[in-house]
Structure to design on (30 residues):
């Protein structure tokens, strides 16, 4: 799935957590 586009639609508030996104990304991939 387009996980890359997934965070693109995330609210700006979530964008602030991008720094830790790599860790959460694993959860999304799962």
């Amino acid at each position: 799935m387009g996980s890359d586009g997934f965070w693109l639609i995330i609210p700006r508030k979530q964008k602030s957590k991008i720094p830790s996104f790599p860790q959460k990304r694993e959860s999304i991939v799962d």
Summary: The chain has a mean pLDDT of 60. The CA atoms of residues 3 and 29 lie 7 Å apart. The helical segments are 3-8, 12-15, 21-29. Residues 1-30 form one domain.
